[in-house]
Design a protein that fits this description.
Immunoglobulin-like, 7 helices, twelve-stranded mixed beta sheet, about 30% strand, about 450 residues, globular, four-stranded mixed beta sheet, TIM Barrel, alpha+beta, single chain
């Protein structure tokens, strides 16, 4: 027989019919991270329809508190013959309860096509609604230097790729930084997506051409989190970011928004305010837990200044549709306090005081065992952007982390020399000169080491 669902319960417009045998059908209904999932068993007879009405109940309402969710790295169409439209993407945003979907047209290496380039307008797509914004931006790709997402573009940055054999741009030149500079010049946020090393992100962050890296992407968070901590320990104010790299036209792919970043925009929501809040670090990333966190009453992205040692009050709360194991207070990359989720694994709160005698960044992290309702990840994870505490007007500076990036830039140069394709040596030498410039910045950071990180 046919089993039917209403459109609000699936990613489709209209009625969905699915053939099932007579007996019991188990349904699980999920809508983002702010609604309580529903699991029910429905008896299905062979000779008559079975009906059930399901009402999803909110477990949180962050929009009412001025927080709006987004995914910074989604592809509408890539690596498949099936093509979808912006209207289909809007349906996904509604089903996953996403407020902002940053779609990133990029090159299909099998052809010279920039997929979804035709949808780029330099503004939110016309299909957007007041609380569901689709924005076609750009992913600029090179497999030596790394892939970069440009958000809030007004003009498409060309070329959108380079270093791809049998394409109009076969050479690994000019590096990512000229395109990143062109994006920044028009007010874009520049994010290295699915970050790995060696790549160019330590260079572009040091040169002020990249805002951050995706801490949550399509891989386990351990390594991106380590890289992000190291950037923060070098004094760079990199906000947390989350992008799934979901291909929406491929069934059973990574789920858009299953890792997302919430941004505080205040009483008014639009795309520019979301980007402004994203870049300012008024945010947290999550695959389940919803966070509140303050230091001396100020939230993520805040800057607290003191002439000397300072005692600060930290407070936080996590609510989650998936079980959590613990909340951790992170100071300069280390967990200095831990609150176990013993009594209720779905709600944890705390209030405490810590003393900081040197400049620090302070953030809240949640860890938990893997769960089927966090389908893109091996564990439950959430992390706020930092609150920055400046003591005696000194920057956070770690010799070990600065030297780590100096070494990684050398590894990147060696990778260029072994794999790079250049039209002439001058192309390679020009890129290396910018890389050496970044290394000098890290050397100055190492010299300013506070010796306590």
């Amino acid at each position: 027989m046919l089993f039917s669902t209403a459109p609000s319960l699936g990613r489709a417009a209209g009625r969905i019919d699915v053939a099932v045998p007579a007996g019991e059908v188990v349904l699980e209904i999920i809508k983002g991270l702010e609604y309580q999932p529903v699991l029910l068993t429905l008896p299905v007879a062979a000779d008559r329809p079975s009906r059930a009405t399901v009402r999803l109940e909110r477990s949180a309402h962050l929009k009412a508190e001025g927080w709006y969710s987004g995914d910074v790295h989604v592809h509408a169409n890539l690596f498949a013959q099936t093509l979808i439209t912006p209207r289909d993407v809007l349906l996904v945003a509604q089903a996953e309860d996403l407020n902002v979907v940053n779609l990133l047209p990029c090159n299909d290496p099998r052809t010279t096509t920039i997929t979804d380039r035709q949808y780029f307008t330099g503004r939110p797509d016309a299909i957007s609604t007041p609380d569901r914004i689709l924005y076609f931006n750009e992913e600029m790709r090179n497999d030596i230097y790394g892939h970069v997402g440009f958000l809030n573009l007004k003009t498409f940055v060309e070329p959108a790729y380079f270093g791809w054999p049998n394409s109009p741009f076969p050479h690994d030149h000019p590096g990512n930084f000229p395109q990143a500079a062109a994006a920044k010049a028009q007010g874009a946020a520049v994010v290295y997506v699915h970050p790995a090393l060696p790549s160019e992100f330590p260079v572009d962050v040091a040169l002020g051409l990249a805002d951050t890296i995706d801490v949550m992407s399509q891989n386990a968070e351990d390594l991106p989190t380590e890289y992000w901590y190291r950037l923060l320990n070098c004094g760079f104010r990199c906000p947390v970011s989350a992008g799934t790299d979901s291909f929406l036209n491929i069934p059973l792919h990574i789920i858009a928004g299953a890792g997302r970043v919430y941004v505080q925009t205040g009483d008014t929501f639009d795309y520019q305010r979301w980007i402004d809040g994203f870049q300012a670090g008024r945010s947290f990333a999550t695959n389940g837990p919803l966070l509140r966190f303050t230091v001396n009453g100020q939230g993520p992205g805040a800057d607290i200044r003191s002439d000397g040692s300072i005692e600060v009050e930290v407070s936080g709360q996590a609510r989650s549709i998936v079980p959590m194991e613990a909340l951790e207070l992170i100071v300069n990359g280390r967990a200095v306090r831990r609150w176990a989720a013993d009594q209720d694994p779905r709600t944890v709160s705390f209030s405490d005081k810590i003393t900081l005698d040197h400049s620090s960044w302070v953030a809240l992290r949640v860890r938990g065992a893997g769960h089927r309702l966090a389908p893109n990840d091996r564990e439950v994870y959430a992390h706020t952007s930092p609150v920055y505490v400046s003591v005696a007007n000194r920057r956070v500076a770690s010799r070990a982390d600065a030297e780590f990036f100096i070494e990684q830039i050398d590894v990147l140069i060696a990778k260029m020399d072994s794999r790079g394709n250049f039209e002439h040596p001058g192309q390679r030498d020009g890129i290396v000169a910018r890389f050496r410039e970044a290394q000098e910045i890290y050397r100055r950071i190492a010299e300013d080491d506070q010796s306590r990180l």
